[in-house]
């Protein structure tokens, strides 16, 4: 009965969004939130990877038992167009009271997860080199069209890092260019193209991964710039994206030494709640980069990192996979709330944002 009520409330939320009644939308989302169990709320804050190319016990457990709010597709989950279509159709048939985020890293160029039998999209650097707003927009729109056809509703793109350090091994041609103007202009146009195809665009990797020499997949990058230097360069594309109705920002595992020398940005209240939310005025969904990356796991457990990130202001914790790890994170978050280390009000704040985003796009 509770699931039926949640579905009804979600339909109401979708309807009021369609007619543009913000007050009613707020009330409808609050109704959903009030009906949810703590387990359901925590699940909404997890976006996770899984093993396999079809619906299996692991995937069913994550969705039906652990009630995760979203999935990320990696290359190992995708073989062909027909297999991908079948996988996502089967996922959509699983009984979920609230729709899932179905996400992917599809930037174009060397970061592409789509099947090999689909025409590939150009890298960000190729798009940036044309310096053509219409081309960037159309690239995003066509990418969104393909993703939407398969049932994917969230893309971890565009990259808004500025490629300003030639020793950087992780960004390179994933960036639109080496100056803030070209990255801002091309990135925002690609974001708009995705959004116009009803794809949630997630800009990344705040506060900026372009001037680093350590790949956060293998270690912890440290940036020594002052706040003033960051505001005049790295923050500019993100600031402009926020001004242009950005829905989701991914926060990376980078230490800003002059802001918070102890914590990576993804775990830093000074960065997420301070710089991103207060200084840049971003009040939509914040998601972490993958918590399985070595920048995190070399120094702290995924469970502890997830809790600290929520405290810092993150709304969604991205965990690239591992059923045991994911379930352990959920249990530790539950325990942290029961122990009073983490408040349910803090959870509600994030889940409200998540439900609001889902009501906007997942219709």
UniProtKB/TrEMBL annotation:
EC number: 3.2.1.52
Keywords: Glycosidase, Hydrolase
Catalytic class of the enzyme: hydrolase
Record-annotated Glycoside hydrolase family 3 N-terminal domain positions: 37-357
GO molecular function annotation: beta-N-acetylhexosaminidase activity
Keyword Ribonucleoprotein in record: no
InterPro entries: GH, Glyco_hydro_3_N, Glyco_hydro_3_N_sf, NagZ_Beta-hexosaminidase
PANTHER family assigned: BETA-HEXOSAMINIDASE (PTHR30480:SF13), BETA-HEXOSAMINIDASE-RELATED (PTHR30480)
Protein name per Swiss-Prot or TrEMBL: beta-N-acetylhexosaminidase
Organism encoding this protein: Romboutsia faecis
């Amino acid at each position: 009965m509770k699931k039926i009520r949640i579905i009804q409330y979600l339909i109401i939320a979708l309807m009021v969004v369609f007619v543009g009644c913000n007050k009613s939308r707020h009330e409808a989302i609050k109704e959903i939130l009030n009906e949810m169990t703590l387990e359901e709320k925590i699940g909404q804050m997890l976006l996770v990877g899984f093993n396999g190319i079809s619906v299996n016990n692991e995937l069913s457990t994550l969705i039906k038992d652990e009630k995760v709010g979203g999935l990320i597709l990696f290359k190992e989950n995708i073989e062909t167009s027909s297999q991908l279509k079948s996988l996502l159709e089967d996922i959509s048939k699983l009984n979920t009271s609230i729709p899932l985020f179905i996400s992917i890293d599809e930037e174009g160029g060397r970061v592409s997860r789509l099947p090999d039998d689909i025409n590939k999209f150009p890298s960000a650097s190729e798009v940036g080199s044309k310096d053509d707003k219409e081309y960037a927009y159309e690239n995003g729109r066509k990418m969104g069209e393909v993703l939407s056809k398969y049932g994917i509703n969230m893309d971890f793109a565009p990259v808004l890092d500025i490629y300003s350090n030639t020793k950087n091994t992780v960004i390179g041609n994933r960036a639109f260019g080496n100056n803030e103007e070209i990255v801002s202009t091309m990135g925002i146009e690609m974001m708009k193209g995705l959004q116009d195809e009803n794809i949630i665009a997630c800009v990344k990797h705040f506060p900026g991964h372009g001037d680093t020499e350590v790949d956060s997949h293998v270690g912890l990058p440290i940036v020594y710039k002052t706040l003033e230097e960051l505001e005049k360069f790295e923050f500019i594309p993100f600031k402009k994206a926020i001004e242009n109705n950005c829905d989701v920002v991914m926060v990376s595992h980078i230490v800003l030494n002059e802001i918070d020398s102890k914590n990576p940005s993804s775990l830093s209240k000074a960065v997420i709640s301070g710089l991103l939310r207060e200084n840049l005025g971003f009040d939509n969904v914040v998601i972490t980069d993958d918590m399985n990356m070595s920048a995190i796991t070399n120094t702290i457990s995924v469970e502890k990192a997830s809790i600290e990130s929520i405290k810092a202001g993150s709304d969604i914790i991205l965990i690239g996979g591992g059923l045991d790890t994911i379930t352990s994170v959920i249990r530790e978050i539950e325990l942290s709330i029961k122990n009073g280390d983490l408040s349910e009000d803090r959870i509600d704040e994030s889940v409200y944002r998540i439900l609001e985003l889902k009501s906007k796009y997942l219709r």
